[in-house]
Design goal:
Length: 508
C-alpha cells in the first residue's frame, strides 16, 4: 500500500517550505543568473591575484551571510533582481485558455509589513500592478506595522506616488501585529473585494481574474491562490502543487496534506477547478468586502499573529461560507525557515492565547484533542471571548462536528473515537510514548507521567491508534510498531481492543 508523504512540513510558520516537482521547478530566474555572469570574468593567473579573488569572494560571502540575517532571506540576491522581473507562467494548460466575465468586482490589495526589505516589498507592489487588469485594482493599501527603517518612511511614500495605481501608505502608531494591522487596512479600503497579500510576494500572469470570478459567482466564497515558492536563497520561482490543501494537526499547526480522492472525484478529475480546502495558510486570500464584515472580520482579541488563519477558516465553513484554493491563480511567496521578527512577551505565549480563543469559540468538545496534547495551553489567560461566542450564535453557525463530518472527514482529529488519553501497561505502569519521534520511527514506552503530550493516543472508530497525525502501524510479523501517516484504510493500522482482557492486538 502506498503512503503519500506530506510535502510540506514546518515548525513555526504556516507555509510550505519546499516546492514539489511542479512545472516551474528548475527554471532559473534572471537574478541569480546575473550574479553568476558577474563572477565569470577570468581571474588573471598568478598567486597574488588568485588570493585576491578568493579574498574578495569570501568577503562577499561574508556580507551575504550578514545581510541574510536582516530579513531571514538572501537580501543580497533580492537586491540584484529587478523590481519588475518577469516570471514563468506556471499555470496548468487548461487555465491559460479560460475566459472570465468583463465585469468582475474591483479589489483593494492590502499588504501589511514590518521592517520589510525595500526590494521584496516593492517587487510585491510592482507585480500586482504589472499583472492585474488596471480596472480591477481599486488601490493598493500598504499598512506599516511600526517599522523602524528610514527607507520605509518618506522614501517609500514618494516612490509609490509615481506609480500608475493609487498606493496608500498607512501607519500603525505602535506595533500592533498582523491581525490588527489587517483590520485597519480593511477599514480604509474601498474596493468591492479585499485581497490580502504578504509583503514578500510576486503575482504571476492571470492571478487575479480567477479569484475575483469565484467571488462574483458567490460572494460567500473566500479564495486563496496556489502559493508558489520563491527561494529564500536564490529567489528562484518554483510552482507550488495543486495537489495539496490546507489542514491542521492536534496542536493546531497548519499543515499541507494531499488533496483526498473525494475532492478529486467531486471535480471529476479536472485540476483546473477550485479545490475546497478545510483551512487556509492565511497570508494570501481574497474576500468580498461586505462579507468580511458580515462574518466578523478577525478576532480582534487575538494578538500579533498565529491561529487567525484557522479561526477564519473554521468560521467561514461553520457559518455558511466556502473556502477554496483557486488552482488557476498563482502567487509566489518567500518562505523563510525562521522569523526575523521579535514580539513583546515572545511568540509562544501569543500563539497559545490565540489558539485557545479559537478552540474555545469554534471547536466544541474537540478542543480536548488540542488541550491534552498541549497541556500548557489550558493555563494561558485568553481574555474575554463573549463577543465571539455571540457572533457564532448570531450567525447560527454549525457545530465543529459538522465541519469534521462534511468538510474535513480526513481530519487528523477523528470525528468518532472510543477513547483519548494514555495507553498504560497496568502491570509495569509504563505508557506508550511517541518520544517526540517522527514519521517512520518506532513508538516508545516510558514511565507514565499523566501530563498528556507525547503520551496521548486516541483509539478511533476506525480502530486506529493515533497520536496526532501518526498511526501505529505494523508491517511485519513480530514488530516493530512504527508510527506512520494515517491512511484510513485499516490494514496494517487496524487494532482490536478487548475490554475484558484489557489488551490491544494488531489483527492484520
Ligand atoms: Mn511571509
Amino acid at each position: 500500500m502506498k503512503i503519500i508523504p506530506i510535502q510540506f512540513h514546518q515548525k513555526s510558520h504556516s507555509y510550505p517550505r519546499s516546492a514539489p516537482g511542479g512545472g516551474g521547478g528548475g527554471r532559473r530566474s534572471s537574478g541569480p543568473a546575473r550574479a553568476v555572469a558577474a563572477r565569470s570574468r577570468e581571474p588573471q593567473r598568478g598567486r597574488y591575484s588568485r588570493a585576491a579573488v578568493r579574498r574578495a569572494a569570501s568577503s562577499a560571502t561574508q556580507k551575504m551571510k550578514e545581510m541574510f540575517k536582516i530579513n531571514q532571506f538572501n537580501l543580497m540576491a533580492s537586491e540584484m533582481i529587478a523590481l519588475n522581473r518577469s516570471l514563468p507562467d506556471v499555470r496548468l494548460e487548461g487555465c491559460k485558455t479560460k475566459v472570465y466575465p468583463d465585469n468582475l468586482p474591483t479589489t483593494s490589495v492590502v499588504i501589511v509589513f514590518h521592517n520589510e526589505a525595500w526590494s521584496t516589498l516593492l517587487r510585491t507592489v510592482h507585480s500586482v500592478i504589472n499583472r492585474s487588469p488596471r480596472h480591477m485594482i481599486e488601490e493598493i493599501v500598504l499598512v506599516d506595522d511600526a517599522s523602524e527603517r528610514d527607507f520605509l518612511k518618506r522614501p517609500l511614500e514618494s516612490y509609490v506616488k509615481k506609480l500608475k495605481v493609487p498606493v496608500h501608505v498607512i501607519r500603525m502608531e505602535q506595533r500592533s501585529g498582523l491581525i490588527r494591522a489587517r483590520l485597519k487596512g480593511a477599514a480604509v479600503s474601498k474596493g468591492q473585494v479585499i485581497t490580502f497579500l504578504d509583503a514578500h510576494c510576486e503575482c504571476t500572469v492571470g492571478w487575479l481574474e480567477p479569484l475575483l470570478a469565484r467571488i462574483k459567482h458567490d460572494r460567500r466564497t473566500v479564495v486563496c491562490p496556489i502559493i508558489d515558492v520563491i527561494s529564500d536563497d536564490t529567489f528562484e520561482y518554483m510552482a507550488g502543487s495543486d495537489m495539496t490543501y490546507g489542514g491542521f494537526n492536534w496542536k493546531l499547526n497548519f499543515r499541507w496534506y494531499p488533496v483526498p480522492q473525494r475532492e478529486m472525484d467531486r471535480r471529476k478529475g479536472d485540476r483546473t477547478l477550485p479545490v475546497r480546502t478545510p483551512t487556509m495558510a492565511g497570508g494570501l486570500f481574497s474576500i468580498d468586502r461586505d462579507y468580511f464584515q458580515e462574518i466578523g472580520t478577525y478576532d480582534a482579541g487575538m494578538d500579533i499573529w498565529g491561529g487567525e488563519n484557522l479561526e477564519i477558516s473554521f468560521r467561514i465553513w461553520q457559518c455558511g461560507g466556502t473556502l477554496e484554493i483557486v488552482t488557476c491563480s498563482h502567487v509566489g511567496h518567500v518562505f523563510r525557515k525562521a522569523t526575523p521578527y521579535t514580539f513583546p512577551g515572545g511568540t509562544g505565549q501569543i500563539i497559545n492565547k490565540n489558539n485557545r480563543r479559537l478552540a474555545e469559540v469554534w471547536m466544541d468538545e474537540f478542543k480536548n484533542f488540542f488541550y491534552i496534547i498541549s497541556p500548557g495551553v489550558t493555563k494561558v489567560d485568553y481574555g474575554d471571548i463573549s463577543s465571539r461566542v455571540g457572533l457564532r450564535h448570531k450567525l447560527q453557525c454549525k457545530p465543529f462536528s459538522w465541519y469534521l463530518e462534511n468538510i474535513y472527514p480526513d481530519s487528523q482529529i477523528p470525528r468518532h473515537y472510543f477513547s483519548l488519553g494514555e495507553i498504560r501497561n497496568v502491570e509495569t505502569n509504563q505508557c506508550l510514548d511517541n518520544m517526540a519521534r517522527k514519521e517512520n520511527e518506532k513508538v516508545g514506552i516510558f514511565n507514565c507521567h499523566g501530563m498528556g503530550g507525547n503520551q496521548v493516543f486516541s483509539y478511533t472508530a476506525n480502530k486506529e491508534i493515533r497520536t496526532d497525525d501518526l498511526c501505529l502501524d505494523v508491517s511485519k510479523l513480530n514488530g516493530p510498531v512504527t508510527m506512520l501517516k494515517c491512511h484510513h484504510l485499516k490494514g496494517n493500522q487496524l487494532w482490536e481492543y478487548d475490554p475484558v482482557k484489557l489488551t490491544l492486538q494488531h489483527v492484520n
